[in-house]
Amino acid sequence: MNKLVINSYDEFASHLGKELGTSEWLKVDQDRINQFADATLDHQWIHIDVQRAKEESPYKSTIAHGYLTLSLLPYMWNQIIDVRNLKMMVNYGMDKMRFGRPVITGSSIRLVTSLNAIENLRGVCRARIGFKIEIENERKPALEGEATFLYYFE
């Protein structure tokens, strides 16, 4: 997989309106879901009770927390892009975010991104990144939206 390497605002801006890349597939297993439940104190049975989910869930399986799916975005984003010459990068916001489909335990997901907008705000680069977290062998994505990052280039 080739990472997109960005060294400056101008290089970043040259990708406006284009796909930036796609991450590798990442399997979401029960152990990851249980660890997330412990970290967030969200132990709803639909996520952690395998037997009950088999019997009562419409999916016949446990499913990942929606926020677990969202929390994997930075890991997958780092597979797509390498922004260099930075003092720092700050998460600024999320917009138009929709959970379209649950991630059934054992499924694999990946991130697909595009540069929707970019601005130079007195030396700070504000980039709006369109993202879609796809589920392997599913038409509808698990999650899609737009993330805004502030990049402080040196």
From TrEMBL:
It comes from the Bacteria. Transmembrane segments: none annotated. Residues 12-122 form the MaoC-like domain. InterPro entries: HotDog_dom_sf, MaoC-like_dom, NodN-like. Gene3D superfamilies: Hotdog Thioesterase. Pfam families: MaoC_dehydratas (PF01575). This is MaoC-like domain-containing protein. It comes from Segatella oulorum F0390.
